[in-house]
Specification:
The structure is a single chain. By secondary structure, the chain is α/β, with parallel strands linked by helices. It has a single domain, classed as TIM Barrel, CATH 3.20.20.60. 42% of the residues lie in helices and 9% in strands. Strands 1-2-3-4 form a four-stranded parallel sheet. The chain starts with a strand and ends in a 5-residue tail after the last helix.
Amino acid sequence: MCSLLHATSGEAGETARRILAAADIARAANCVGLRRRIQDLVADLGGRRGRAPSGGLWPVLEHARSAVLIVARAFGQLAIDTALVDITDTVTLRADSEVAVAQGLMIRACIHPSQVAAVATRHPR
């Protein structure tokens, strides 16, 4: 897997430049999927948080999600969605995972074992 965060461009964290370079990152010989991380991107864009008051992602972050999905699929790779940092918020995790699956994202990253059950029912692959 090639996380946009872990590409070898010398930049620390995920940035707007990495979203724009997603196709170059996907071309790497050892890349089998792309994963997007929103926390670093929010900071790079000068934002304070990734979610709107409604609970959904801000449109610019949905755009980044879409860009990663399109590039991953164009290169025949896995499209991996970002992890939700708040491990206690299973309501948002379930709702956001349903949106991700509806859009075509194949896998959801988890950062805690308690998130797996909520994600597994939404990401059946």
